Amino acid sequence: MKVLDLFSGIGGFSLGLEWAGMETIAMCEKDKFCRQVLAKHWPDITIHEDIRDLNGKDYKGSIDVVCGGFPCQPFSVAGKQLGKADDRHLWPEMLRVIKESAPAWVIGENVSGFVRMALDDVCSDLEGEGYRVQSFIIPACAVEAHHRRDRCWVVAYSESERVQRLRSCGLEESHAHGPALLPLCEGKGFGSTYWETEPDVDRVVDGVPNRVDRIKSLGNAVVPQLVQRIGEMIYAEHQRCG
Fold this sequence. Notes:
This protein has nine helices and seven strands. It is of the alpha/beta class. It has a seven-stranded mixed beta sheet, sandwiched between helices.
């Protein structure tokens, strides 16, 4: 499965989805330091700088997944919580790219404050484009990370794509409305994860290059082990009909 990774940060989405068997073919990230990290670890793929300049039509037919942790500042308790009034509210741009590229799957991520302020709108937007949508609050500790870090995850699947694939393997169209990601709803699928020792604090002490950039990019990052679990379920469902 091919991935278009928006608001890529330092690559947590792409890393987790690669562990799940997918391949990122393009990224988009505005922060210069993060782009340098991405270029180091994914030197052979396109990295767009600004989502406002990204034409999703360039990827229509060549990707299966659009993913992205669209900016959380409009919804974070650490900010003013201006929601859609915040000029950093970039969900409309992510939605535009989804419309233009027409992926089978969409994965979105944001802070828990997003649930109260914008989740209904995001789900409605995706449903209006023909996606079946499920949302979840999943903390980092669900994959045994050593912190809670509640995040809202939105997973959407194209209804037309699902019907077409089920027909191709001889199933009734009525089955198209079955629970594609029910294990997530039931709290299953997040088994034991082996964690090596947490990163040493000496990586962020005074004197280490890019200390502030490192802290900021790590703080904004998703937990790739959690993305991997979501990706594995999506990959299994996508492969079910071959």
